[in-house]
Structure formats: C-alpha cells, structure tokens
C-alpha cells in the first residue's frame, strides 16, 4: 500500500457490525463480561477502547512499528515513554527540543531520578561523547523547534545499538507522511498529534509507536497504570485528520517553498532556517532521510521591536503557540514556546529575540506572501 492509500485504508476501517464507513465513536467506559474475565477484547476504557484502538492500529501502520498508543497530549505521551526508565537512568536529548520536553525532563522527571543531558545531536560525535555508563536512550527531535536542525536518525540509531540504548524520535514536525524513523532504526517514535496529525487546531493529543513486542508490553503497562489515555471523541478526530494528512502535507510543502523563496529575497530578513534550503547545513541529510521538508520556517528580523511590528501588521498568520494546522500561525519562540527555557540557555542555542517562527497553513499562498510583504515593510 502506498502512503496516501495507507492514510485511508490503514489500521481498522469502518465498523464490521453495521457497515459504517467511519469508525464509530465508542463513548463508553466499561464493557459487559459474559462470565468473569470472559469478554470480547475490551473490559475498561483506560485499558482499551475500540475507537482509540482503531487510531492506535492506524498510527502503528503509518510508522511501520509493532504497536501504537494514544495519549491525552504530546507531553503525556513523552512522559509515558520516560516512565519506561528507572531512577538513576540517563537520557541524552537534542538541545533545542520542544520547550515542554525540556521542562518535563529538568523540572519533573529529574525529581524521580531520571537524568538528562542536552546536546547538539546533529553532530554524531557529540552523541558518542555524551554516553555514560547509566545512559539508556538517545532522544532526538528532528527537525528541531524552532531552529530546524537535522539529526541523522540512522547514524544516531547505529550508535545507540552499539551501546544497547533505545533510540526515541519526536516525529511531530515531519509526520509519518514524510519521515518514518523506525525504518531508519529507531525503537520508539512519538508525536504531538495536536499538530499536523490532527491538523485543524481542534484537538490536543499524543501518539507513540514502538518497534518491538517487549516495548509494546511495557508501554501498555505504563499507559494502563498511569492512565493518560486519549478519549474516544478525540481519537476519532485524529483519524479524521489523518485521512487528509497526505494532501495537507503536499500542499503545505508547496506553500512553504514559495514563502521561503520570498523571504530569501527580503532585505528585512537576516537569516532563514529551513531544511529545504540548499544553504541549510544539513540539507542533504534532510533530503535523504525525509521525503519532504515540512511547513515550519524560522527567520530573524533583527530585534524584538522589529518582531513586534511584524506581529502587529500581519493579518493571515494568527499569533498563537502550536503549529501544523490548516491556518497559518506565527510566534516568537523566545517569548512563547521557548519562554520556559532560561534566557542564557536560549542565547546559547541561537533563539534570539528577533526570531520569528511561522507554521505555513493551507491558505492561498499568494495571500500569505502579500501579507508577509506588507508586514515586513518599514
Ligand atoms: C507541541 C509539541 C510537543 C508537546 O505536545 P502537546 O500535544 O502540546 O502536549 C512535543 N513535541 C513537539 C515537537 C511539539 O511541537
């Protein structure tokens, strides 16, 4: 099955009992048992729910893994994955990860003895050097947020295997439509499905796919024990979103390419971060490991004051956190998504006060370019 077909026919389609073409929303918490312990596969909806199960089967198929899991948010998904580790274990992480991922590691999970080191994973020798005797995993976000750095997934997974570490990839920015990390050697792939997978700014959700029976058993145990599951209504919304993921990602790519071309020629823009640019330091790698570059672009307008003028004038880009939806969004990472990262740390990473991040949506690209043009005018 090719990718666009799999988005429609992967997982479990429809309802065999009624012929309904859409998977029904099983708004139910508990299930009748014929006799004690004898049931038709579902007993209580924290443990398993048919609508959530259909979504979990679908994301498993799309990522090419052994089992899928749906959580109440991307952060719940990330936290559940981290619960696979024990007190005293160490995880190596990409330095410009999503702000919330940095926060949960350094302010919450550290209190339970899970250690983390943040490094530039786009440099494989840096990964190698960060491995300690208690290291258990390499956690990669690629492309990163907001600087669009690229890590070599296959290269990192190879190092991980040599040291018996797990490779975990946050695939939120690329989605399985463009990038399938399990094929490149990753053990666990996770998503904030709030973004492209849902795609319509109407649901907060997280997804995880694992590539072995053992990890599937362990993660299901964590999911059922800690209980951060996704409800049936939201599971259904994600399946609805996934049906159009292919055409949304293709159109996003076209719009983004045109916008980047425009920004490149604009004198008010000092620096553009986009893996699709040939001048991006990891352009070749990005091209090799993913089929598309995505719709996230960051660019520098020089100062906080300039960024504020742009934000005030812009019409079609909504000032908001989040990304990956049909409507174009704009944000200033230093004061929004990355505000939870201390100022000195942000400076080290290059997240300047003039850095603007856009998530390109599905409006007519001519309108988006005209809008950026008028907002960037002095
Ligand atoms: C948004 C986001 C998260 C967190 O997901 P939520 O659904 O907001 O909890 C994690 N990783 C990345 C890359 C994100 O963009």
From TrEMBL:
It is an enzyme of class 4 (lyase). It comes from Cytobacillus eiseniae. It comes from the Bacteria. This is Cystathionine gamma-lyase/homocysteine desulfhydrase. PROSITE patterns: CYS_MET_METAB_PP. SUPFAM superfamilies: PLP-dependent transferases (SSF53383). One of its GO terms (molecular function) is homocysteine desulfhydrase activity. Pfam families: Cys_Met_Meta_PP (PF01053). Its EC number is 4.4.1.1, 4.4.1.2. Keywords: Lyase, Pyridoxal phosphate. Belongs to the trans-sulfuration enzymes family.
């Amino acid at each position: 099955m090719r990718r666009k077909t799999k988005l429609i026919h992967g997982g479990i389609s429809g309802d065999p009992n009624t012929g309904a073409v859409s998977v029904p929303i099983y708004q139910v918490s508990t299930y009748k048992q014929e006799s004690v312990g004898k049931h038709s596969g579902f007993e209580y909806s924290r443990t398993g729910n048919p609508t959530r199960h259909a979504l979990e089967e679908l994301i498993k198929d799309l990522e090419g893994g052994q089992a899928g899991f749906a959580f109440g948010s991307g952060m719940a998904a990330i936290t559940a994955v981290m619960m696979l580790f024990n007190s005293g274990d160490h995880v190596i992480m990409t330095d410009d990860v999503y702000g919330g991922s940095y926060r949960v590691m350094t302010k919450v999970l550290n209190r339970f003895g899970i250690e983390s080191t943040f490094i530039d994973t786009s440099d494989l020798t840096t990964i190698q050097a960060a491995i300690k005797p208690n290291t258990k995993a390499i956690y990669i976000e690629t492309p990163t947020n907001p600087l669009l750095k690229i890590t070599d997934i296959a290269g990192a997974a190879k190092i991980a295997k040599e040291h018996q570490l797990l490779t975990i990839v946050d695939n939120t920015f690329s989605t399985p439509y463009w990038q399938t990390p399990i094929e490149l050697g990753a053990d666990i792939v996770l998503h904030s499905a709030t973004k492209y997978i849902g795609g319509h700014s109407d649901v907060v959700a997280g997804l995880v796919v694992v590539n072995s029976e053992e990890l599937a058993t362990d993660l299901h145990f964590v999911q059922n024990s800690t209980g951060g599951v996704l409800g049936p209504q939201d599971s259904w919304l994600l399946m609805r979103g996934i049906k159009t993921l292919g055409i949304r990602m293709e159109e996003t790519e076209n719009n983004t390419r045109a916008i980047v071309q425009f920004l490149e020629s604009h004198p008010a823009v000092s620096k553009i971060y986009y893996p699709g640019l040939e001048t991006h330091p990891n352009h070749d790698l990005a091209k090799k490991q993913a089929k598309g570059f995505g719709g996230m672009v960051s660019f520098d307008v020089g100062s906080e004051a300039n960024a504020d003028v742009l934000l005030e004038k812009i019409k079609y880009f909504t000032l908001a956190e989040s990304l990956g939806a049909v409507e174009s969004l704009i944000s200033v990472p230093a004061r929004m998504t990355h505000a939870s990262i201390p100022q000195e740390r942000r400076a080290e990473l290059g997240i300047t006060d003039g850095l603007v991040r856009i998530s390109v949506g599905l409006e007519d690209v001519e309108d988006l370019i005209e809008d950026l043009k008028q907002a960037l005018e002095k």
